[in-house]
Amino acid sequence: MSESSMRIETKLVHAGEPLPRIAGAVEMPIFQSATYEYGGEGSYHDVRYLRTNNTPSQLALHAKLAALEGSQAALVTASGMAAISTTLLTVLSAGDHLLAQSCLYGGTHDLLTRDFANFALAVDFIDADRRDGWQAQLRPNTRAIYVEAMTNPLLQVADLNAVVEFARAHGLVSIIDNTFASPINFRPIEAGFDLSIHSATKYLNGHADIVAGAVAGGAELIERIRHKANHLGGSLDPHAAFLLGRGLKTLALRVRYQNDSALRIARFLEGHPAVARVNYAGLETHPRHARARSLFAGFGGVLSFELKGPASGADEFARKVRIPIVAPSLGGVHTLLTRPATTSHAGLAREDRLRLGIGDALLRLSVGIEATEDLLEDFEEALR
After folding, report:
1. Cis peptide leading into 153, omega within 30 of 0?
2. What is the C-alpha to C-alpha distance for residues 176 and 195, in angstroms, rounded to an integer?
3. Active site residue 114
4. Is 51 a catalytic residue?
5. Domains along the chain?
6. One of 177, 203, 228, 353 is an active-site residue; which one?
7. pLDDT tier at 343, thresholds 50, 70, 90
8. b/e sequence 344-362, b meaning 16+ C-beta within 10 Å
9. d(Cα 210, Cα 332) in Å, to the nearest integer?
10. Catalytic: which of 11, 64, 96, 105?
11. Is 203 an active-site residue?
């Protein structure tokens, strides 16, 4: 059986792994070395060195991630923000313009609004749900369009097919942050996107013990991004690479369980009298449920909700639950609870947060792999 014909569960375990196995090791060894013997390489970017992103651990991950995404190539980085910033600084040059979805992860939003001007880069935020407004924001110097598969923390689902079509019609590089969906639920390259980005800290690793990033796409474009990364220095270290490779092997098992558990919890919360609103694309009441069903194999393990009453009620609920850990981040084996106004989107001005719909009382829940029944009982008691 060829690697390309393998199902994704098999690719997670076997794709990219060196054959023959190194000294017979079943697991990819940790190559704890930054420096390698010179082999006659003619290019700076080909010299084997940890920062040039071409050591054995990194190359194995590149091959595995490309196989999972259905892309020609992939690159791992030192963090999700390293993947985002390096990618954008590769496809954009001074004087260029970016179209970006209006509701983005706080770190990405800060990069675009606070740092881009220093590089003479311009950005306009679009309503990614309304294609009819994009044309008016297009400029002669627009080079790319950037969206998220599911937005953080409101779980909005953009018209992703329209984004791909719009980008092709206007010669733009289409970029998507696929962290919330993961390749189990959505593979953007197969859907026509040029680049798929992940905070590999989240679902890809899944154990909250490393920070990493990844980007997948066409070979020529990924090579350009690698060259930029070589200069900016956001390279993944060997031990983190080992942990990411190990975590990837259980990705399908974790994500599918989290899909099912999150949907049950979202339905429970939606029906509870103390809950004012639940944001989860798996709910039939979600405004883009039909779109999400057509795009995704599953709706992910993250949801957000608001309790009735003041923001202090959200803090009280967080104090009362026993299983969820009150902490930022998402996508791991632990269930995590956070208030975006004080964590992921604390950098936004309050008026900007409220305009986007991120209220002070909003809670984001990243469902782990604990027993769903235990989580439901915990929530019921805390809400009582």
Report:
1. yes
2. 6
3. no
4. yes
5. 3-248 (3.40.640.10), 252-383 (3.90.1150.10)
6. 177
7. low
8. bbeebeeeebeebbbbbbb
9. 11
10. 105
11. no
